[in-house]
Amino acid sequence: MSSSKEADPTLGYLTRKDTEVKLPRPTRVKNKTPAPIQITAEQILREARERQEAEIRPPKQKITDSTELGEYRLRKRKEFEDLIRRVRWNIGVWIKYAQWEESQKDFKRARSVWERALEVDYKNHTLWLKYAEVEMKNKFVNHARNVWDRAVTLLPRVDQLWYKYIHMEEMLGNVAGARQVFERWMKWTPDQQGWLSYIKFELRYSEIERARGIFERFVDCHPRVGAWIRYAKFEMKNGEVGKARSVYERAVDKLSDDEEAEQLFVAFAEFEERCKETERARAIYKFALDHIPKGRAEDLYRKFVAFEKQYGDREGIEDAIVGKRRFQYEDEVKKNPLNYDSWFDYIRLEESVGDKERIREVYERAIANVPPAEEKRYWQRYIYLWINYALYEELDAGDAERTRDVYRECLNQIPHHKFSFAKIWLLAAQFEIRQLNLKAARQILGNAIGKAPKDKIFKKYIEIELQLGNIDRCRKLYEKYLEWSPENCYAWSKYAELERSLSETERARGIFELAIAQPALDMPELLWKVMVDVMGGGCEVCGLPRYGVTHGQEEPRRKVEEMYNGKSDVGLPTLGNYQEHDTRTIERKFSSCATRSEQAFVDFETDEGEFERARALYERLLDRTKHLKVWISYAEFEATAMDTDSFEHKWDNFLNLFILFVPATGVFEKALNYFRSSAPDLKEERAMLLEKWLNMETTFGQLGDVSLVQSKLPKKLKKRRHVATEDGSTRIEEFIDFLFPEESQTTNLKILEAAYKWKKQKLSSDD
């Protein structure tokens, strides 16, 4: 039962154990030492070759009489015929059949086989070649000539047939017949090698005139540079210098625009150089460099430089080097026409040479490569091509009309609806001013304001009109400026300064009022004071230079206010140094001085002696923002806001001067109370405020109360905190924290309270 269960019907009711293939157990090698007799791979191969059995070859049959020969031929012919019937298209079978008939010396049958094969495929030139070779080998010359004649008639484009035919005639000494075959061949306009073979054939028999005639026909059939150069070298080899020069000149007339013209000019120049005609060679090189495209003249430039180094003077060598560099730049701009740096280098090269027409040509080619996209970043380099072109026409070429045309085309090229370049408008207007055409300059600047208004354009236009004394035009321009950009504090302050310089105090005050009433200036983060040049220093608010780009201004600003330096006959300490900024204040650059109109208004009122008005303006500014800079500026204003005329009459006692600094101290107290109560997180600003207050109290000398401020100074503590990184992990960084005196007292109270609570819990647990 168990065996029947193990049986498998698919195996014929055999068990799998019966069908298992038992492999021999691998024998374990006990002795692994090398054998005493070693055998090499060479010996193994030699033994294998010796043991090979001999190749089985059919026995050789010896024919003893004509009967056996006839039977052998009949059998072989039958085999070949049967094979041809099966594979009629196989030319190899036909060739073997014909060659076998030839070996039997039965030439008629051999010719019959060849002819039958040609009927199958007469276009196979191999058949013709072997057929003719059989006839020539057996010295059947007329038969061979007949075969060649038929072959070249049917296959005139197979050059090998012509070569073999001509070679046979020449070997037979039939020169006239070979020439006749060449003439038949030339009617089919073969390639250059066929013509050159004909020429060499004539030269072998010293037929110079015939060869010259064939060369004439050759260059007419193949009007290529190589053919003309061969013709000229042929004439030169035969000592015909004049004819060789004539050939070169004819070639230049016909092929000066050919792609291979460079080779022709180089060969022509080298020919003249060999003839000691250096001036002719130089003229050929220069003519070629002017007419051949730069991309195809690499070898020509190299040859010309070598020629000038050998035969030319210093000027000629420099011209050759310039030509080589010109070729390099042409190659660069051809590869990348939008690489404007290459165009700049190329233009500088041409300007160093001084050829006006070539310079203008390069400029025109350069400006024709307009950037592909209407984005300003693509045009920033391109626009300088136009600028340099206009400056060249004005300064170097002295052509005012072309300069005006260049500016006009440039302005038409720029897409002003997307972006514009103020420098182009200003350069065009300044050019017209230099040409004493003020009307055109105003028209250009007016178009600029209408199409693409920019700060630079307004500033320059106002500056020009101000220099001309046209105050009404300046006012109109300022009005246009403020209509276009009402949030621009610079424009408001400059407009007010203009009115103030004209002693129009009320107008200036009205402009300032309008400026600070602008809604765009109500954002607290933008309400910071304009830079005021105090004692030749920087911004009164941020401590940065007046002409720094941090405030968005690119020109130095005129001093607006000279504050009182504290000179006194009663020995008042000098207050001029109180404006020095510490390092942290300078490092804390705030983002904008947008309310330069607000501070300019304060400075205006201060200069006018309206200290109450200035104080009211500071209060208005503090209503908008409580920024640290505003508090410091307000305190400094209070420390310097005094009337020197009343000072000499009212203050007779040195101690009473202390009352002068009470308002400044009050401002610092208010600022400190604000940061303590309303903004406790701004510890660093609070520390900076106390440090500024301490500096001011120090400058007051005996009148200052340094101890009052020192008691409020915080302690610096170095702490650590966890900071999240971009990848989601955290890292620990160190930072400086400030601990103020009132905070330390609160901390001590909390510690005592915690200790009392712990002691109370301990006593309750003991009970």
UniProtKB/TrEMBL annotation:
It is found in: Nucleus. Residues 242-320 form the Pre-mRNA-splicing factor Syf1/CRNKL1-like C-terminal HAT-repeats domain. GO terms for biological process: spliceosomal complex assembly. GO terms for cellular component: post-mRNA release spliceosomal complex; precatalytic spliceosome; Prp19 complex; U2-type catalytic step 2 spliceosome. Its main location: nucleus. Keywords: mRNA processing, mRNA splicing, Nucleus, Repeat, Spliceosome. Residues 1-35 are annotated as: Disordered. SMART domains: HAT. SUPFAM superfamilies: TPR-like. Residues 79-223, 327-487 form the Pre-mRNA-splicing factor Syf1-like N-terminal HAT-repeats domain. PANTHER family: CROOKED NECK-LIKE PROTEIN 1, PRE-MRNA SPLICING FACTOR. Belongs to the crooked-neck family. Involved in pre-mRNA splicing and cell cycle progression. Required for the spliceosome assembly and initiation of the DNA replication. This is Crooked neck protein. It comes from Sphenostylis stenocarpa.
